[in-house]
Amino acid sequence: MNVPPTTRVGHADGSVHAGFGDIHYNYYNHSGPPKQETAGRSPRRIADDQLRLLRQRFVDPDGMGEARRLLAEHSTVILDGAPGCGRTAAARVLLYELQAATGIFRELLPGDADEVALTDPGLVGAGDRLLLDLAEADGARWAECRRALPALRKAVQEQQAHLVVVMPYDDTLESDLQFYRARITTPPAQEVFRRHLRLHRIPHEGYLHSAPALADFLAEEPSNEEIADFADRVRRARTAHPVRDGFASWCEQARDARKAWRQEVAGLVTDRREAPQRALLITTAMLHGAHADVVHHAAALLLRTFKISQEKVVPLEGKDLAERLKEIFASAGPDGHVRFDKLDFDAAVRTHFWDHMPDLRRLLSVWTARSTELGDPHLTPDLREELVERLADQYLRAGQWKELAALAEEWGANAKTLTRSTAAIHALTPGLEHKKYGGGFRHLIYTWCKDKQLTESLVYVLLRVCTEVIAPTHPDQAMVRLHHLARRDQGSTLPLDALSDLVATSSRLRRRMLDRLTRRPSDADARIFLRICDPVPLTDPGSAPHALVDEQYVQDCVTFGWRGVFAALPQPHWHPYAERWLHTAGDADNRHDLLLDLLVNAADRKGKQLAALYSVARAAEPTASGGPARGAATTDRLLQKISAAQGLRPSAAPPRSTPPRGATP
């Protein structure tokens, strides 16, 4: 599929609440530095999963080979092409194909409040894969970005990173940048369509037959996104009628579904004036494809939500569900799942009620939240997600993104079940991914993380959207938001755990985080610093030219940060972190003195702090990775540096018999 991928938060990392009642969020304090980075579904993995799915749906356009060559040889390519040809998808695929052990995929958003300027050398991390999508940029923004490209390209080359720029179609490009331009054209529509069908697992024997409706559609020269939509409608037509119809019929239904069905829906609503009929109509549209039991119970819940009393009819005397569904042109298939007879009729019904009955919107939102918590075994997590997304789509389609954000905030803040919290996440996700309103949602999330009074359940929601929705494409913005959550946290380590995991994906993020923690630090930042300033990743260069700790600026941040720790936190709190630091110093032969110097300099010649450091070193000797002897050697070297800092400058380390363990130097 030559369209950008979307994020689906369809799993729970932890206990799952599958019934009724409350779920209580229990947090546990972290007793010391991590033994290793926590495993799990990291933002980098989420981003790579999304890009891999896109690659599977992608058909190479003409010019893709030249784009690959330019990117491989010069670390930069500027993509040009007509709208609808798949420029942004091509850019993402190019970057996905360059996966490396270091670096992360990122979208650059010049002009956003949380984004670093394109000319800032700290913008690019080692091995990063950068996307600068300016396909829709106006003339002024494009000109500004062009002026910044030479500096950005230099940083990309120095960091062995890669950059793909999507430029406005056939716009101005300076002569020195023309060399990096690759023009791509729309790939063969038939091949794009068939690629989608194969991924939808439709047997190729079926679509080898002629289909006049398909031929008419392709003759319109549709965009890649329109082809993807048409293929998806074919898939859904096949799902609804897998045996009765064939490929040509599925294509006809897909063609007819391109109609808005507005007049047909308006006539149906006019003719079905009874509340139970309309409740079933709305429910079928919102839970389209759900099992009949779910539709039945949700329709009854909708009537109760609207405070409409149901008819007092003996069940055997009333209409059965099949007859009631027939009245609204729907039916339950052999699998028991309810669908309208016309493809995409459900979308038209949702649009009609939202646009023409605005008084129902608030109640429909309340019903959606309650429906996700129904105890029906047929109500799967995927169906709950689809239900919330269909509601969110109506808010966004109508431009009511602020109302959607307020609804998600209400759900998240007052959630008593994990299901309600997850519904809040699913409501925020389409907004954060929306091309027009995504920036507004990210700003609101920033405001909530920084200033809003938070409940435990809302913290959980914010953590999930920051790590699973924002971080895969905008890690810097996710880092800022998680930092604010970690600063405000009382008693829980979950925000700090999430921040630490995100920073672990990139040396550049760790450097930026150290800068944030030491520029205008608070007491809370001292606690955060201990987790972020982990000596192991600081001393491991990986595939980068050098380790972070070799940089003078990072050394300054480390010294300043430890100084803040000594001043703000009691020794029992920082003891295990200092012990880990000393153990790492004992193992790092080429940086042994550097790591010890940073700690001693941070103590700033203060005898009490230097004594505390020495006591930590003596206590850490038995657990040194190289054995007690290596631990003792580290302590001796530390004592020499402490003595030098105090102006004593001993010519050699004192005998091991003195001073006794625990004594101050």
Could you walk me through the main structural features you see in this protein, from its secondary elements to its overall organization?
The chain has 665 residues and is mainly alpha-helical. It is built from 31 helices and seven strands. The chain has helices spanning 43-57, 64-74, 87-96, 139-158, 175-178, 189-199, 204-207, 212-219, 224-240, 247-256, 262-271, 275-286, 292-305, 321-327, 345-356, 361-372, 381-397, 401-413, 418-433, 438-451, 456-470, 475-488, 494-503, 507-519, 523-532, 535-539, 552-568, 571-587, 592-603, 607-620, 628-645; strands spanning 76-80, 105-107, 129-133, 162-166, 181-183, 330-332, 338-340. The chain has a five-stranded parallel sheet with strand order 2-3-4-1-5, sandwiched between helices. Helix 12 crosses helix 13 (292-305) and helix 24 (507-519) runs antiparallel to helix 25 (523-532). The N and C termini lie far apart (67 Å).
Give descriptors for this structure.
single chain, 665 residues, Rossmann fold, five-stranded parallel β-sheet, two-stranded antiparallel ribbon, globular, disordered N terminus
Produce the secondary structure layout.
Layout: H1 43-57, H2 64-74, E1 76-80, H3 87-96, E2 105-107, E3 129-133, H4 139-158, E4 162-166, H5 175-178, E5 181-183, H6 189-199, H7 204-207, H8 212-219, H9 224-240, H10 247-256, H11 262-271, H12 275-286, H13 292-305, H14 321-327, E6 330-332, E7 338-340, H15 345-356, H16 361-372, H17 381-397, H18 401-413, H19 418-433, H20 438-451, H21 456-470, H22 475-488, H23 494-503, H24 507-519, H25 523-532, H26 535-539, H27 552-568, H28 571-587, H29 592-603, H30 607-620, H31 628-645
Parallel strand pairs: 1-4, 1-5, 2-3, 3-4
Antiparallel strand pairs: 6-7
